[in-house]
Predict the structure.
Amino acid sequence: MIKKGMLALFIGLYSCTMESPTTFSEEALNDVFIAMNNEEVSFKEILANNKGKKILIDVWASWCTDCLKGLPKVKKLQKQSPDVVYLFLSLDRNLESWKEGVERLKLKGQHYFMQSGWKGRFGDFLGLNWIPRYVLINEAGKIEVFNATKATDNLILEGLKK
C-alpha cells in the first residue's frame, strides 16, 4: 500500500514539473504531411499558411472511438470560435480511409494525413501515445496548450476565448 502511494506521489510530482514546449522542434516542423489534394507539405509550411491565426490541432483517426466521441465537441467549438483555424491531422491507416472519414463525418477545417505516423518526427515531438490529442497555438505561433486529450479541456476553452 505504501509503495502504491509513493508511486502515485512520484508520478504526480514528476508530471507537475514537466514543462510543455512553447515552440515546435525543427524535426517536427520539417515532418511532411499529405494534403487533401495529395500534395506533400511540411508542418512548417502549414503553420506559415496560418501565420497570425489561432490554431487548434486535432490529431485523430477515423477508426478511433475516442476521436469520434470528441468530434461533436470540436464541431461545437467551431461554432463558438469561428475565427480559429481547425487543423485535423490524421493517423488513419491509409489515404483512402482518411479521406472517406473526413467526408463521412463532414469535418470542416484543414486536413492533413500524417504519413510518418505515431512515431514520426511530429508524433515523436508530441510524445503521442493516445488520440485524440489537441494542441492549441496562439496568434504569435506559440504552443499554448500542448497535451490535451479532450476538446473540452479548460485550458483549450480559456485559450480560445483570449
